[in-house]
Amino acid sequence: MPADGGTLDPEALRDRLAQELPAHLVPSRFLVLDALPMTASGKIDLARLPEDARPVSARPYRAPRTAVENILVRAWAAALGREQVGIDDSFTELGGHSLTVMQVITKLRAEHGYKLTFQDFYRHRTVAELAAVVTDAKTARAGEDTGGPDGPGGARARAADSIVWLRRSGSRPPLFCVHPGSAHWFAELADHLDPDQPVAAFEWPGLSRPCPAPESVEQVAELNLAELRRIAPSGPYHLLGWCGGSQITTEMARRLHAAGEEVTFLLLDPALDTYERENMHEFVRRFERAEAAFADLADAARSGARPERVDELRQRAGDLLNDILDDGEVAPPEPGDDFWPGRIRVWRELLQTRLAYRHTPYEGRLHLLAGDDVAAGEHEVAEGVSFEDFTARWRELASGGLTVHRVGGNHLGVLKTPHVAEVAAVLTGLLSGARQ
């Protein structure tokens, strides 16, 4: 932001950014605005940005060729506030983020019955690729398996469902990222890491299709390790856990290290002794209240309740949902919505699994990246714990040594612009120093 009375020198700004960022992340152009338009939840409102300020596709425009592509193009354009979207455009390159993905998913489910998932959006990033997923799903449903050892459709969690590639290209050993739920949190981080660094993230299969609740952190870790071993049968391994993913990552690192593998073990704002945190138990109760509200909404719609009553229950379900969501707000759900109830149930099940976990020492070295909330003792997964006590506890758990790296940003901000660039720079340095 230029000082009062100052002017912007694009070349000087570009030169300065080139000193801080990888070449592929330095902007090609700049636009001065009096102020950034914001949403009610404090996020930049892309739809209200001037056209020249919105992310521009570098791909030649291709118009939709099929009815499915046309539906997807219109949904993307509405969510991103754009007049035109081509079938080769990438959702993330056009400025899409986790909340807009949620909005598009729920819109397509409600209006067209397309049951896309977060995994679909990050595995298939263009309209053309997503349209193929929709078409394939329709074909698969026509001959859907209704039996088998796992019940209807085969409802067992499978290792092959647990990985989402955020970047496949690169010659280095992949960085495997772990969050207890969705892989989408690491998308911006992947974009800021060295282009030669492959990045994959684990996602619990229950977020994409019906499967039994996780039995334990150990089971989730074992599932992840089965997929990791399939991709990379031997080390070195690079593991990054964030937030509640720290327990799963710790268990994965502990097992790999015990097997004699070389592990670069990285935790970003990790949860600490979750079972001791009363606010984590309160999160379970929040999930349960939201589940009950969605059930009440579905029951009211099925029983033909008065429209006023249905609207009242829609608003309550929406309020409880937005009380849970970390990264934005969504409109009140429609009766019969099965997207949000399923996700809320899975989030609760995963948190209950983590509440049952007890850390055991990791005998290797741990690199701990700590953001501003941790340093201030305000991090929601270690609420009320001083930074000194926080690092002392991790030093106790990492018997092979602890290195602490301070980074800027709050709990969510560490993985979002602008702070994610600093986190990526720290990780790039650590991974470059590891044996490749």
From TrEMBL:
One Gene Ontology biological process: antibiotic biosynthetic process
An example molecular function term from Gene Ontology annotations: phosphopantetheine binding
A cellular component term, taken from the record's GO annotations: cytoplasm
Keywords for this protein: Phosphopantetheine, Phosphoprotein
Annotated Carrier domain residues: 63-138
Listed SMART domains: PKS_PP (SM00823)
Cofactor entry: pantetheine 4'-phosphate
Residues forming coiled coils: none
Name this polypeptide is given: Carrier domain-containing protein
Lineage: Bacteria, Bacillati, Actinomycetota, Actinomycetes, Kitasatosporales
